[in-house]
């Protein structure tokens, strides 16, 4: 795997970079940044309730493992047999009664939790197996559900129901408040990673269910306040019906600032237009490119072409609606490293 030296002068100490999020957004950021000489930590949401993760969570009562799996796979050593282990960790079963839709990595993490007594211990053991270049930590060890209260006073419980609005729910309704049920406290390892970081990266990812889901955990806002780190927000490529319908970039940033207790020091925005065929497919889901309305924004805005050339195909057995196009991990990593 090619390593880059940008962002680190000879004789200087390695910078500490901490991502806060979950899912494919965190996977993309970590996949690019691990090629640079930095110390990486990934603080991962524990609110996921859909797909394979949700099924295992309901059956075993453990923390949701899917976001841990994605972060671990992103940071896995890809030399030698590393690629095989990484691919195995991401493998999704397409057939088999009871197995269809499950990820092998999810099942392995559940088994390791049984063997070693906690999700944190399972992540640590899995990190050794995958020879992870960095560390993955849960934002909390409390088993929680997300609660979204909308502008009309209606409440929806559960990450999946917020992410994909139930029948009869207006997905364009604004979320007035996001919270957790029950309340949760930040895990000590997550607090340490945030407070010791030189740069904190929020996003990309579903604004409320992947990113802000971490910020509503008790103690996270305070850890950000105590950290000396520069706060970076990677703007999403698309709005999300059910969460950010009609949002421009400024509204995304305002929500981040409201829950983080701090306006981001930098906002990274893609300025490359989407392919027309991709835009049309998104329009059918009532999702649109996020409009860049940050021209008079007080913080630094980094604009760059950041689109991946790969169009994401839905895998057999996957019941969760996924994004069609994502940030290019290498392009995004270069912009982040340029801030160090």
Main features:
15% strand; 7-stranded parallel sheet; alpha/beta; 3-stranded antiparallel sheet; 13 helices; Rossmann fold; 340 residues
In the CATH scheme, the class would be Alpha Beta
**Assembly level:** single chain
SSE series: EHEHHHHHEEEHEHEHHEHEHEH
Proportion of residues in helical segments: 25-40%
**What distance separates the N and C termini?**
22 Å
What's this, in brief?
The protein has 340 residues and is α/β, with parallel strands linked by helices. The chain has helices at 23-33, 51-60, 66-75, 82-90, 104-116, 119-129, 159-163, 188-196, 207-215, 220-226, 249-260, 276-284, 329-337; strands at 16-21, 39-44, 135-138, 145-150, 155-157, 175-181, 199-202, 230-234, 266-270, 300-304. The protein has one domain: CofD-like domains (Rossmann fold).
Description of the molecule:
With 340 residues, this protein is α/β, with parallel strands linked by helices. The chain has a single domain, classed as Rossmann fold (3-Layer(aba) Sandwich). Helices cover 36% and strands 15% of the residues. The protein is built from 13 helices and ten strands. The strands form two sheets. Strands 3-2-1-7-8-9-10 form a seven-stranded parallel beta sheet, with helices on both faces. Strands 5-4-6 form a three-stranded antiparallel beta sheet. Helix 1 packs across helix 13 (329-337), helix 3 runs antiparallel to helix 4 (82-90) and helix 8 runs parallel beside helix 10. The longest helix has 13 residues, at 104-116. It is globular, with a radius of gyration of 19 Å. Mean pLDDT is 88; it is low at 4-8.
